[in-house]
Structures are given as C-alpha cells and as structure tokens.
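Practice problem. Given the sequence and the SMILES for zinc ion, write out the predicted structure.
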Amino acid sequence: MRKLTLLSVVAALGVWRFWPLPDAVIPQGEPLPAAQAPDGLRFALLKTGSATTLEAMVVAGGSLFRPAAVGHVAVLVEHPAGRFLFDSGLGTGVDAQFDSGMPIWAKPIFAYQQGQPAVQQLRDAGVAAPPRIFLSHAHWDHASALTDFPQAEIWVPAAERETALHGQPPAFLPSQFGSPTLRWHPFSFDGPAYAGYPASLDLFGDGSVVLLPLPGHTAGSTGLLLSLADGRRFFFVGDTVWNHRGIDRPAPKFSVSSLIVDADRDATWQAVLQLRGLRDANPGLQIVPAHDSSVHDPLGYFPQFVGAVAR
Ligand SMILES: [Zn+2]
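Answer key:
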C-alpha cells in the first residue's frame, strides 16, 4: 500500500511537471451589453462546505506548496421580480450520497468538510426558500441539495438534464436524481447572441441577470452574468475554472483532475480562453469560479448580501 501511494505521488509529480500546456490563443472579447439593473438586485453566497488542497491540484502549472482553499457555495439571487438559487451546494443528505455513491478511489480526491446546508441557513435567517434553482451544471457537489428544496423548479438546459439522469460517479451521483418529486424545468438559450456567446437567456428582460452557455466541463454547463445597479458585474462560471489563476495565467485545470471531471477538455479550455478575452475587454468584470474561496471570501457570505438593499 505504501509502495502504491509512493508510486502515485511520483506519477502525479511527473504529470504535473511534464504534461504539456495547450496553446493559449486568447480571442478578442466583446464589450458587455448595457443592463438596466434595478436597485433591489442583490446576491449572497451561502457557504455549504469547504476543502483545502494544493494550487497544483486545481490549476495546471500551479504551485505544489501554495494551498488552495476550496468552497462549496450556493448563490442566492434576489431580483424585485423573482428569487432563485444558482447551484445548491452540499445538502443535508450529502454524507449519505457521498458514502454510498462515490467510488473508493475518488473519495480522497473529492473529500469535503460539510458546512451548514443552504436550506438550514435560509430557515435560521427566516428567509423563504426560493422557488427556482438554476444549476451551473449537475455534478454531485452542485446538485447535492436539490432534494432539500422539493417545492423548487430545477432549471437546466435540456442537455444537462439528460447528462445528469445518465451520469455516473465520480462526477454524477445517481442517488441525487432518483427522487420522482424533483421538478425539472429544462430550458433553452433562446435569446440573442451576447458578448461573443452564441445565445443567451435574459431572465427578467432588463439585462441584469443573463444566463449564458458554457459547454465543456459538462454538455449543459451554464454561466450567470449578474449586473448590479451600482455598475458592478459578476460572471459566475461554475467549474469552467476551479481557481482564478486559471483565468489569470490562463491555464486549464491540472491534467489529472481535468481527465476525471471535464467532459470535453478542449471545449473547456476554449471556454477558459473566451472568459479571459471577455475579462480583458471588460476590466471591471469579476469572474467567480464556483469553488475559489479566495474570490468568495472578499464578497462575504450569507446573511451578508452584495448589492444595493431595496429602498
Ligand atoms: Zn464543482
């Protein structure tokens, strides 16, 4: 066993050191279209779990010595015309889902420390559960809490629902999708091209909350572009990158991790490069990966909100 562990460490080091990085041709980004964001629009990050790993495990060429703090968040978005969650975080049933569904070899890779599930945080704060949940994608750590919100409609592109229902561990845990009470609401991006993306879905018709297709990590991966009344703009990009350094360098995920989790590695890489081009063209844009605590921490966590309070 010790020999095996040593061998895997040596193999991982070899891959880390010698696996070639793909070419980084950053496409020219487009300016973001204007948004008429209402005063009451705001969001809060609900931290439902965490983990600590090394930067080298989350981004190619990352440091073997610098720790990377991983967060599992659900994003509560409140718009005067509606409220929803973007991703659900780790739910009340995550331990059972993980223990029974995750292959033994993958458990150390995806180990987590559970925080308070979103449903409990909302209940403790006297905040009603939102009627809709959008998923950046349906991997286990984003879909874990779906059954905690039985009244909510689950909005995903049709391709993502199909992927979820046929998905296998370690990326998907079928036990999360077995309940007949899940209220799927497949949608399509039937809005116009947006800032270089071929289609979009403007949720409230004012340009403040726009969903964009980010296929690669999964077939139906979805990004959320949020524009606040004070002019700040945030792009929640799910697991297209795990860490902001993926955009800064730019670099894909560590190759071994990417082989395990990215459905289409080349499409994921192109999506990363497009994000970098978009940020270069829109310097105020803040890109928010789903798991990068170094990006989440400065924004604060629920019950703290980002954005104006309704007058
Ligand atoms: Zn994830």
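Check your answer against the key. The domain at 43-299 is CATH 3.60.15.10 (Metallo-beta-lactamase; Chain A).
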